Amino acid sequence: MAESGVPSNEHEVFRIEADESRSPTTPSIEDEDINQLPKPFLSPEPIRKAARSCSGHKLVIPEWVSDWKLSSVEKYLHIHYANDYLDTPKDVIQKIPSAQELTEQQNQYIKELQKFIEFDSNYEEFWLKTSVVEEKIATLRSKLKPTNLLSQPIYISKGEIFINTFDSFFGEFLEAKKTRFQLFEGMFTSLIISLGQACCLTPSLCSHKQSQTRWNNLRGVTVKSEPDGRFFNSPTFGPSATLKPKALVSVIEVKNAKKFGYSGLKYSERNPAGRKRCISSNEEVSTDESVDSASTSGISSSSSSTLLSDMSEKKIPEIVSYISRKTLAQHAGELLLDLHKFRSGENLASFTLPGMIVDGTKVYFTLLEMSESHHKKLDKNLELTEGDRAIVHYAKPLDILGQEDRDLIIESLVRLHNI
Asked: Strand ranges (DSSP E) for 24-67?
């Protein structure tokens, strides 16, 4: 996407993150004893100097959100993922106080676009029946007949963007099969970006320093993130025309799911019982952030076993079953920094910023909800209390390849104009 379309910093923004490799690597602090930090937190510059020059001072959180840990996000920022999925993206979006219902014009556009890019597929078909997929793409392309652009309906010109991107995506998929699924970074994000364009959203891929988001003195650290892109709404497609674009969502693409096969499974197949998960002493999710940190901070093996025993009955978010804690920590950080930079409105009890997690062809709609007082304490670097608790809500994932799921994604993308 053209970078010239990136709005100025005064606009609210909706971000897309897809390439973790862009963020400079910072030294890991996961094994450091962060409990020795003085309270209240020091100003950012002295802490940075101390951490770099004296091994006795440690940072609470790393400089780049791509290096954050979920346990640190919960402990020091009081941001938590909800325990359970919400059923649909609409349930997520409706948690935004300013969200409005779809207009008659929007409902009509949704139906026309859904019909125009109508096809149904799945991972098994991509893998085992490529000729069938080729026929479906040919059917889609047959709808792209030469016509007068001035008289062409908007849903056709916009839908053409998705069809062309999907065709290109399938070609990349076939190439990936030949190279044992060494997929290109951002390959899956391109699908949701093009579908967002088809829904009249304006995407902005962020590949330059000016697109970085920064928060000075967040827990004593100048924190930065470099999103992969942002979405803006159309000033004429919402319930009322606005003078400037309004921010919508921050999007991150999962980078550790290198095999398309894992991402292609439907939610019902990956979690047939819809069960709630609890931390178990032999689960990887508990060892990656508790046992490792315990062993490296001088805690004995018996103490770490006690720690795991105490955690054994603690419920953890359902989304942790399918999205890595590292990705979830980064996504929470990107949502937080964008909310801080692009929030709008005065005298609000709470702030919200929607997001998306792209896991292969699956899309999770998310939303960070934080009270005004919680944000103010973070902004002024004040101590948080138990009452300060921000939540990241999320809906069950939807697969772009499936017609029914894609129809819901289209409706949800159009709803983002109304927040």
From this structure: none
For residues 219 and 213, which has the higher predicted lDDT (pLDDT)?
219
Query: What pLDDT, on the 0 to 100 scale, is given for residue 256?
Result: 53
Scanning 208-298, the segments in alpha helix (DSSP H) are 260-264, 267-270, 284-286, 292-296
Cα–chain center distance at 347: 27
| pTM (2 d.p.) | 0.76
Residues 22 and 81 in one domain: yes
Cα 124 to Cα 107, 190, 265: the distances in Å are: 32, 21, 9
By percentage, how much of the chain surpasses pLDDT 90? 44
- Which range of residues forms the domain containing residue 77? 3-276+319-418
Distance in angstroms (rounded) separating the CA atoms of residues 64 and 333: 9
pLDDT at 400 over 70: yes
How many angstroms separate the most distant Cα atoms in the chain? Answer: 75
Looking at the structure, tell me whether residues 190 and 231 fall in a common domain: yes
